[in-house]
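Table S4 entry, Fungal lipase-like domain-containing protein.
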Amino acid sequence: MCSRWTGLALVLRTAAAEAFVASPAPECAWCEAGNDACNHSYAAYELDLVETSISGAVGGRRFPLWRPAYQPPFGAPSPATLAVVVHHGALRNGDAYCAHVANAVLATGRDPASVLVVCPQIYEAGDAGLDEATMLWWGASADDGVEPDRGERDWHWGGNSTAELGASLSSFSVLDEIIEALEAAHPALERVVVAGHSAGGQIAMRYALFSRLETRLAIEYFVANPSSVTYLNASRPALPPQRCCDNATIASTSYAFAAPGGRCADYDAYGYGLAGPLPDYAAATTAARAIDAYGRRTVVYVSGAADVCDARYAARARCAACVVDDGGLDTSCEAYAQGWCRMERLHAFAQFVTAFYGGDVHALVSVPDVGHSGCGIFQSREFARAARLLG
């Protein structure tokens, strides 16, 4: 009799365990809010290969760019007055970002011929879609700029393309050459929006800081939801002990800035700050020249008001009953010195820039109900208004 009930208990426990495995906690809806409403109704895109200044030295290899198929090939004449150069994030899905922005433009009702959508495609070694015989590529990124090369080959940080070829090109130089080609091919062009989300927001911010490009065009930089930014001095926001990020608290906080204490020796190393060696392009600009220019750039920080997730900390602190997906948040000590989540990092940095330059030289735009979603950001009313996509 005893053995019979023991057997029954085992069956019940096993069934309960199977039910638990089959019904995991749902993902937190807010972490990547914006993806569910994404409009990709226009879905035809072409990949152009564009000659660069080093193509002759690397066997004719060219740089890949996506564009909507309704648009002429890159470099062909058009009546466009605006170009949106939108950079993908760490997933290196340039076609998806092209879809985000092309559909945003089409939704405005303006003549699509008046807006060029240009979508750089960084490939890393081994990526699907890379043809090493015809395309320029980058080495695998460490994503933090500190190890192993302090950004020398990290495209997020302006690093150079692969060392396997006879010459290499900074990811910042690629953007320079794209804009120069747009200026040459489109006499009616007046304005270029350089926009990026997540790791694309990182490259947009650092390109705005270090660019040496001289052009008749008005260049505007839109930095959306980056995991880190480059501070202009050794100060960082004075933060409370780590906590579950709350967007209302962040939005209402006025940050003080000072050099942080603690054990993070590399918190100001290049990428997170300006200390130590710089990659080739940034070194040629110099930190002093970059700081002087940055305050005169037109820069807009675009913050998803729900981009508050940190998977590692949420699991430890039980911030939510759902499963947190933070989209690859940088959880290094260097990044944590800038804030506990992406929203806090961007809001704090916008305040830092105002204090550093002594005025509102840049703008901060908050996008409600959007988390870590490139589509949610670039198809928002807030982005359309700030980037003047409405004409």
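The radius of gyration is 23 Å.
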